[in-house]
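Troubleshooting log. The previous structure file for this entry was overwritten by mistake, so regenerating from the original sequence record. Sequence copied from the archived sheet and checked twice against the printout by T.R.
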Amino acid sequence: MDHSIAYLMEYSSDTINTKVIRSKFTHFSKEQSLEKSEHLMHNKEQQQQWAYYHELGEDIKKFDEVFLFGPTDAKAELFNILKKDHHFDKMKIEVSQSYNMTENQRHAFVKAHFLN
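Regenerated output below.
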């Protein structure tokens, strides 16, 4: 995951189902906000980033174990948000740094993590 896209991969019995969640804060919306003011752009970015993390949190509530990985700090930011929410107190959440991966590489990374 990163600040603009997350791949939610549900791993069960050697199959992986993937759902893609994208942040609403795009390069286009950033340019539109910047035209008005930098302050407005930062406020909009924060609101849409919070909405993105909230959507991710809602989707992962059903799991007992979550593995967050990616090349940016987005995974740590999401982890910190989840840790403050008591809905996730009993959930096992692990975080790992990784590089940008293809879909096959992401699937192999997830399988390797959960098989070990």
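The beta strands are 5-12, 15-22, 65-70, 92-97. Archived copy saved in two places this time.
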